[in-house]
Amino acid sequence: MSSALTRLWERLPLKKQTAQSGIRVFSNQEPQQNQEVEDDEEFRVLSLRTVKQQFQRRQQVRRDPITPPRTNRMAVDQDWTAVWPGPRSFHPASVPLPLRQGFTERGAAAPSKFANAELMKIPNFLHLTPPAIRQQCEAIKKFCTPWPKGLETEAKWQRHFPLEVITTDYCQSLPTIRNPEARRVTISLKLSDLKFDAHARDKFLRLVGDRYDKDTDIVTFVTDRCPQKKQNYDYALYLLTVCYHESFVTEPWEATKSEADMEVYLFERNQSKLSAERILNWNAKEGAPKVAPSKSFAVCVEQLINEGENEYNLGKYKEEVKKMLSIA
Amino acid sequence: MYLSRQLRLLPRANIARSLSSSGAHYTTAAPAEDAPIEIPNRIERSPTDLLQALAGTVARDHTAPHYKYHDDPFLIPMSNAAKRTYAMSKESGRKAAKWIKEEHRELFMHQEAQPAIEKFAPSMVYTEDSVVDESSLGQLISQGELKDAVLVYNLLEQKGNPISPDLKQSLLELVCFHNNQEPLPEEYIEERWFLQNNRRRERSGKTWKDGDLAEKLYSEIEPKTPQSYASLIRGMAKYLQCERAYALLQEAGEKQVQLDTNTFNSVIEIVSFLKDTAEQRWQLCTELLNEMSQQKLRPNLGTLNAVLQCISTFGNLKLARTAALQALPEFKQLGVSPSLGTYYYLLIIFCRERGPVSHVIVDILNDISGKEFQIQHPKDTYFFATAMDVCRNHLHDKSLAKKVDELLHTGKNYDLIGDSFKESIYYRNYLALLCQTELIDDFMMSYDRLVPNIYIPEPGIMEEILRAIEINGGVEYVPRIWSDMVVFDHTHRESLLLYVLRILVDNKPNPDSAAQAQLPEQAAKVALDMYERVEEAIKRLRKVSFTGQMLGDILTLLVRGGSYEKATEVFAHIDKNQHRIPGTPSLNALLEFVDASVQEKAPSQALLALQYAVENNIDSRALAKRIHEGFTLNETHLSKLKSLVGESFLDK
């Protein structure tokens, strides 16, 4: 009690000096007596007015009995797809499997499924059991049409449907159902499905630039400049059409292409053809038919210059020259 | 986020068309040698068809609660009260959210959703000073906002704005439909589900508001149109202002106003309030029908059901039958196909309490089994509960009940069960019928399927089940039933407790059969559990108290189950509270207790039992004999025995 009184004194404000000293005296002088009182009975409260004592009996909350997990009542041959029809986080009282997961000390068993956060954290695929998938496939089969006749092989349908259009729909948990990415449209087709002459092909490839993949021979247009999918689709088809038609147009300035502008070496329009002809027609009579260099020689020269000098090309060139000059 | 990528292949013809417009020299024509391809047409489907097809694969899981409850042992409701409480509290959360939305409307003015969701925005507030015009009134009427529509209408009236007759007519229809009372909002499904039949009780009397807005609106519409007549008559008939509805109908007839079929239907429905005897009712009904045929109105399903409803109120069974049989083929000729409501009326016409037995339900079921129904008439939801009631109380036929149940689980017919009240009537009758007619093992299978997630038996049905168990000797199911009774809070029903004990005591388990090998221990557990529960209940609620019989049975079961110590405790309770417990345990209970004492070598307990028997005037000779034969008693015990039964007993 003395310690309690001291604490009380410490808390008293400075104004009450007198009261302080009084208590102090009390606490110093009669510690023994205090001790006895404490032993005898509890601290008596000085009640000036008789207050009716209110006994508040604490109401015990009656709880409904908790049932055992319903896995106990599940039949062995129950329909699992009815128990777990959709994606849901794991619940031990609904999954009748003795699962264990989590880290423990060495040698101890992993924690059981009850109150196991590890099992709840990971996504489960309990709703995608093979029977469930089978049932769902059966259910939506009535909306499916049979595969078209005459399109059995990939080669066949690629021949009938040369153009690929790829669009994407997004399903998200946002207030809006719109997704800006959904406007993107990709169309692609094999260049070999279009018919070109040499000039048109060259021009088309120049027009489409890096939209053409040389390795797979596929041209791809990706359009996303319009706000809607439909508009982008129309735009993509428009681009394809326009590029194709434009490639067949020969502008007047295209005729002014000089040798320096050529991107590849062509035997036909170069000096080596003239030289070869001159050699072949050496001493030929006037009016006699001109002898042209052979096709293989032309190819060989083009290859030598376009691909660069290497052992194979040089060897080939040597062969061809020998053949042309009939030097056995 | 899920994404679905669509890959579409354009046929060659399409490209050719778009590319070949300017010149023929570079078209890409398909090679001619190809076989023609056949692409099947797309199968049309609505946006939700796929989802519904997938949902159709999910069957009801009988171990799980309804999906509106959380699937967690702590949150699965286990009594009818809990079911109601849980569902309603969930809904009250929804209501609270709605209240917040309306109260703090400034926080919900933003509309992030695209397309905007109107229900998420706070509703418009109309006050006395809001600026309104006809279009806002029209919008409110189309939204069915009765209170606001009436307010806006009054505002327009005050300002002297003209209101078009069309708008007035649609407001009249709205007011007549709801009787100028705000209806329960549609989104509170749980409240509707648990509303029970309060609504019906309300409707037994006239609720139409005389001289209210509806009639004012009606008087304002000049000249009177058939539509205005029709809406007022229908409103009056719906809220049982019968005389005036009928008078208005006659007035319309005199003025040669062409009314429609549904208005006549609504008046036929209230014929029973207009006339008292069956003959008069039938006469008025036929008059109305004749009037319809004069006006060249084609009767519909509503007419059929209204006529049958009128017939079902006939006290005269003979007239009712003939009238119903007369009406049915006539409507069939007219091409009106009956709904479940029609069959409901037929059932209540033909199968009456204390009336002759009618097998009309057999024909009905033959007619409709395997069909899927849609709601067509408000009374369609009454069919299943009534049909099951007829199966149980009128015909007492198990196979019919199973047919009804099969029909209920066909397609989406379960939507027509009505509300929780009707559902529980249905299952109450079904379960009671099954437990009276089926073998106990079969019955327990259906019991496991239905209880507790679909239906929780009331105490009365529990008693029926216990009776079935007693009759069929299925004592091994009693522990299971007891645990259900504990969960469903039936443990304060004294009759049920006594019944459980009686079954357990009377059917002494057969130790040879495998099913009953565990039974003595289980029975002892049940008895002990019951003892503790009753003791607890006495302390708290005093709904139930011990009787001598009950305690004797508990004693017996404990002794049989081998828990002798507990038995002595119970016996001490009996002995100590003799004056408080009405009745005494049976002699057999004491005998078994003494036998067990002999086995446990506890002579003092046996002597206590003997003393108790002597004090309570139970025949004590058999007890004394057993004690004397079973023990080799020491001096003190022997003298006690002597003092209890007298010297003479030992000499014999």
TrEMBL record, chain A:
The record's Gene Ontology biological-process terms are: mitochondrial translation
Q: Which Pfam families match?
A: MRP-S28
Output the InterPro entries linked to this UniProt entry: Ribosomal_mS35_mit (IPR019349), Ribosomal_mS35_mt (IPR039848)
Mention any one GO cellular component term assigned to this protein in its UniProt record.
mitochondrial small ribosomal subunit
Q: Which GO terms describe its molecular function?
A: structural constituent of ribosome
Q: Which residues form the Small ribosomal subunit protein mS35 mitochondrial conserved domain?
A: 178-246
User: This chain belongs to which protein, by name?
Assistant: Small ribosomal subunit protein mS35 mitochondrial conserved domain-containing protein
In which organism is this protein found?
Drosophila erecta (Fruit fly)
* Lineage of the species this protein comes from: Eukaryota, Metazoa, Ecdysozoa, Arthropoda, Hexapoda
Automatic annotation (TrEMBL), chain B:
Q: Where in the cell is it found?
A: Mitochondrion
Q: What Gene3D superfamilies does this protein's entry cite?
A: Tetratricopeptide repeat domain
Q: Name one Pfam family in it.
A: PPR_3
Where does it mainly reside? Answer: mitochondrion
Named from the GO MF annotations, one term is: ribosomal small subunit binding
Supply one GO CC term from the record.
Answer: mitochondrion
Supply the alphabetized keyword list. Mitochondrion, Repeat, Ribonucleoprotein, Ribosomal protein, RNA-binding, rRNA-binding, Transit peptide, Translation regulation
UniProt keyword annotation of RNA-binding present: yes
On whether Mitochondrion is a keyword of this UniProt record, the answer is yes
For biological process, the GO terms are: mitochondrial translation; regulation of translation
Instruction: Please give the family membership noted in the entry.
Output: Belongs to the mitochondrion-specific ribosomal protein mS39 family.
Q: What is this protein called?
A: Small ribosomal subunit protein mS39
Highest lineage ranks of the organism?
Eukaryota, Metazoa, Ecdysozoa, Arthropoda, Hexapoda
Which gene name does the record give?
A: Dere\GG22508
